[in-house]
Amino acid sequence: MLKVLTLLTYGKVEKTLVILFYGPSGVGKTETAKYLAEILGGELYRKEFSMFQGNEYLSFLFGV
Question: Where's the ATPase AAA-type core domain (predicted)?
Fold first, then answer.
Protein backbone atom coordinates (compact mmCIF):
# COMPACT_ATOMS: atom_id res chain seq x y z
CA MET A 1 0.00 0.00 0.00
CA LEU A 2 2.86 2.37 0.75
CA LYS A 3 4.22 1.93 -2.77
CA VAL A 4 0.81 2.77 -4.26
CA LEU A 5 0.52 5.90 -2.11
CA THR A 6 4.03 7.00 -3.07
CA LEU A 7 3.27 6.60 -6.78
CA LEU A 8 0.00 8.50 -6.39
CA THR A 9 1.74 11.32 -4.53
CA TYR A 10 4.32 11.85 -7.26
CA GLY A 11 1.88 11.35 -10.14
CA LYS A 12 3.71 8.41 -11.68
CA VAL A 13 0.70 6.15 -12.13
CA GLU A 14 0.36 5.42 -15.84
CA LYS A 15 -2.06 2.51 -15.71
CA THR A 16 -5.64 2.26 -14.62
CA LEU A 17 -5.89 2.10 -10.86
CA VAL A 18 -8.53 -0.16 -9.32
CA ILE A 19 -9.40 0.08 -5.64
CA LEU A 20 -12.16 -2.03 -4.13
CA PHE A 21 -13.74 -0.88 -0.90
CA TYR A 22 -15.39 -3.55 1.23
CA GLY A 23 -17.45 -3.14 4.37
CA PRO A 24 -20.92 -2.70 5.81
CA SER A 25 -23.27 -0.06 4.46
CA GLY A 26 -23.09 3.43 5.85
CA VAL A 27 -19.36 3.61 6.65
CA GLY A 28 -18.35 6.03 3.86
CA LYS A 29 -16.94 3.79 1.13
CA THR A 30 -18.54 5.76 -1.71
CA GLU A 31 -17.61 9.14 -0.27
CA THR A 32 -14.01 7.98 0.19
CA ALA A 33 -13.90 6.80 -3.43
CA LYS A 34 -15.33 10.11 -4.66
CA TYR A 35 -12.76 12.03 -2.65
CA LEU A 36 -9.88 9.92 -3.98
CA ALA A 37 -11.09 10.34 -7.57
CA GLU A 38 -11.26 14.10 -7.05
CA ILE A 39 -7.77 14.30 -5.55
CA LEU A 40 -6.19 12.08 -8.18
CA GLY A 41 -7.98 13.77 -11.06
CA GLY A 42 -9.47 10.53 -12.29
CA GLU A 43 -12.91 9.20 -12.99
CA LEU A 44 -14.98 7.18 -10.56
CA TYR A 45 -16.59 4.05 -11.94
CA ARG A 46 -18.94 2.72 -9.30
CA LYS A 47 -20.26 -0.83 -9.34
CA GLU A 48 -22.82 -1.98 -6.80
CA PHE A 49 -22.03 -5.55 -5.76
CA SER A 50 -25.04 -6.17 -3.53
CA MET A 51 -26.77 -7.88 -6.45
CA PHE A 52 -23.99 -10.49 -6.62
CA GLN A 53 -24.64 -12.13 -3.26
CA GLY A 54 -25.57 -15.59 -4.49
CA ASN A 55 -23.22 -18.30 -5.78
CA GLU A 56 -24.94 -18.31 -9.17
CA TYR A 57 -23.50 -14.86 -9.90
CA LEU A 58 -19.84 -15.84 -9.49
CA SER A 59 -19.42 -16.81 -13.14
CA PHE A 60 -21.03 -13.56 -14.24
CA LEU A 61 -18.89 -11.54 -11.86
CA PHE A 62 -15.56 -13.06 -12.90
CA GLY A 63 -16.41 -13.77 -16.54
CA VAL A 64 -16.04 -17.56 -16.49
Answer: 19-53
CB contact at 8 A, 57 and 49:
no
The string of DSSP codes covering the chain is -HHHHHHHHTT---S-------S-TTSSHHHHHHHHHHHHT--------GGG-SGGGHHHHHT-
What does pTM read for this prediction?
Answer: 0.54
The pLDDT assigned to 9 comes to 67
Let me know: does 62 contact 55? Beta carbons within 8 Å.
Answer: no
